[in-house]
Amino acid sequence: MATTSQPLRGKTTCKKIFWAVFPHACFILSLVIYAFLGALMFSHIESTREVTVSEEYRTFLQNLTYLARKLSDNVTENENFKDDIRELFNTADPVWFINPEERWSFFGSLFFCCTVFTTVGYGNTYPVTRIGKYLCMLYALFGIPLMFLVLTDMGDILATVLSKSYNEFRKLQSKILASKLCSGSTCSKRNELKCRAQSKIVINEPLTIMEVLRSQSGMKQRPDKYRNAELFEMLIARENENTQPARNKSMERWSSCPELAREKTVSRVIRNFDKIGKELEKLDVPIVLMVLVIFVYISCAAAILPNWEKNMDFQEAFYFCFITLTTIGFGDTKLEHPKFFLFFSLYIIIGMEIVFIAFKLGQDRLIVLYKKVISFCAEKNMPSKKIYPK
């Protein structure tokens, strides 16, 4: 029986782990598939568009040629040249200088899709065709809620990890303080007794009926009828404990009725979907800790990113990562190799979640502060009670 029960327990634990991980994997897999489908769609639409020479582009080239001929050998002598060339390039459209096949490759389109549903929007890559613009709006309409759902789901995981880590740190800190107090020379007798009691915790096995009878020394002095009644009650209680079904035997009932097991598994998965966002609401860690986590998280990426983006140093990479994770996305710092940054997509999602948790904690702290200020102002404006003489 032991050999057959172990494989069954292994299968049931594997099934429990699978159905516990299933909601999280379902969200992430849906987002990945959505990004790949969007990359295929925009790559097909934008890379195959016809490049036509417009009248504005011809006018721009004529004016540029005129300024180039007008320019003398010494640029400093021509004071109006800088203003003229700046005004001319302000009228230029960036689309004129973009090769659609290079910009809208599969990796470039995938990078664009990531900037759409993460709401970063750097602005250096955007659809030009009319159907591409319409599909971009439709793509963002469904992609942004899916991204927020993934962020909320991953927020529960990160909130659980952060809260447990913080609680374990607090427990370890309290144990260290307690050990210092107990080991000090000024420790009182009460603290010593508590330390000894905590260190000598013994869990005894339940006594048998004979051991219980032997421990009842006062029972022999009672009359026979009372002693027999108590012995009978103890025997009945002992028999009920032995005849109660074990909890793990419910597994055998499920194996005999697979419909019941299937319904129980489905209900458990549905409950897992309903619990999304609950752990994030219960998170309570210091805001200073979250700021430190964000600083370390961005610093790690800022140290790695300049290895393949040669136009960035540590400060520029730190600025770029902060603008990205906060979904501001100015677009002033551009990437030369966006396909390499796609490997950072998981980093972006986790980082956005960490920043989101920090913003959530900051929002809670601001609400508490506003409540305190409003209650303080209300107490100040309350009319003072006047005590009239009797």
Automatic annotation (TrEMBL):
Gene Ontology cellular component annotations, sorted alphabetically: plasma membrane
Membrane spanning stretches: 17-42, 104-122, 134-152, 285-305, 317-335, 341-362
Keyword Transmembrane among record annotations: yes
Membrane topology qualifier: Multi-pass membrane protein
GO molecular function: outward rectifier potassium channel activity; potassium ion leak channel activity
A Pfam family reported for this protein in Swiss-Prot or TrEMBL: Ion_trans_2
Subcellular location: Membrane
Keyword Magnesium applies: no
Domain of life, source organism: Eukaryota
UniProt-listed GO biological process terms: stabilization of membrane potential
Keywords: Ion channel, Ion transport, Membrane, Potassium, Transmembrane, Transmembrane helix, Transport
InterPro entries with a match to the protein in the record: 2pore_dom_K_chnl, K_chnl_dom
Primary location class: membrane
Chain ranges of the Potassium channel domain: 95-158, 293-363
Cited PANTHER family: POTASSIUM CHANNEL SUBFAMILY K MEMBER 18 (PTHR11003:SF346), POTASSIUM CHANNEL, SUBFAMILY K (PTHR11003)
Membership in a protein family: Belongs to the two pore domain potassium channel (TC 1.A.1.8) family.
Protein name: KCNKI protein
UniProt gene name: Kcnk18
